Amino acid sequence: MKRKILVAYDGSVLSKEALQDARLQAAGVPETEVHVISVVSQSGPSANITMARNIQWELAENLRPELEEIKKEFEADGITITTDVIIEDVHRNEGTTICEYAENHDVDLIIVGSRGLGNVKQVFLGSVSNRVLQQANCPVLIIK
């Protein structure tokens, strides 16, 4: 039976650690498929939709070479991998998009980095990781 692992990647240290965990879990298990996605949501001035979309496209284009390098590294280890940058047309939490992707691709495990908030980082998760934890229909591994 094929196992599918989804890694939410944003270029942060914790998302890079999530990649390494996925690599370890997939190593030597030929039936494992890894999906690495980056979600770019609307940012910038909401009053100027053209400027906000240009910022989105620029962020997405900056992520694509990184994802291509990740793909080469995984393939060199014999791991089946799919990478994608998803550009959100609506302003919402990226965790929702991650969960929808996982459901649409029959993902068995989502790996996402946590994000601390100041001095209370042991108490609260980042908004994206919290959303994934609450909405996912499969197990979630949060890297901290």
Q: How would you describe what is shown here?
A:
The relative contact order is 0.21. The chain has 144 residues and is α/β, with parallel strands linked by helices. Helix content is 43%, strand content 22%. Residues 116-124 have low confidence and may be disordered. It has 4 helices and 5 strands, in the order E-H-E-H-E-H-E-H-E. It starts with a strand and ends with a strand. The longest helix has 28 residues, at 49-76. Strands 3-2-1-4-5 form a 5-stranded parallel sheet, sandwiched between helices. Strand 1 (3-8), helix 1 and strand 2 form a beta-alpha-beta unit.
Concise structural overview:
Helices cover 43% and strands 22% of the residues. The protein is an alpha/beta fold and 144 residues long.
